[in-house]
Amino acid sequence: MSDRHKRKMRVILIAGIIFAVLFIAFAILRAVRIGVGIKKMKEEQAIETQAKEPEYPEIPISETDPE
Questions:
Q1: Could you give the CA distance from residue 31 to residue 37 in angstroms, rounded to a whole number?
Q2: CA distances from 11 to 1, 7, 20, 23, 44 (A)
Q3: 51-64 confidence digits (pLDDT tens)
Q4: For the chain, what is the domain count?
Q5: How sure is the predictor about 2, in pLDDT bands with cuts at 50, 70 and 90?
Q6: DSSP 1-67
Q7: Please, what is the Cα angle at 53 between 37 and 34, to 5 degrees?
């Protein structure tokens, strides 16, 4: 292999590695951002359901059992 060919292959290899590292980093950042968004949505939903749910008195099972 000529020196020029070796240099070209090395540049392509390094560019590929850099691209892969950046791709993985952005994928991780996106996953973390989506995970944080889902967590916030669940917390907001829990707060909304707590505010909407009326307090019902607990009825023992023996009173509702027809037997």
A1: 10
A2: 15, 6, 14, 18, 49
A3: 666 666 666 666 55
A4: 1
A5: confident
A6: --HHHHHHHHHHHHHHHHHHHHHHHHHHHHHHHHHHHHHHHHHHHHHHHHHH---PPP--HHHH---
A7: 5
Expressed as residue numbers, the domain containing 34 is 20-50
**Residue 64 in domain:** no
**Residue 66: inside a domain:** no
pTM higher than the cut 0.70: no
Distances (CA, A) of 48 to 19, 41, 43, 66: 43, 10, 9, 35
Do the domain assignments include residue 3? no
The mean-pLDDT minimum among 27-36, 41-50, 56-65 falls in: 56-65
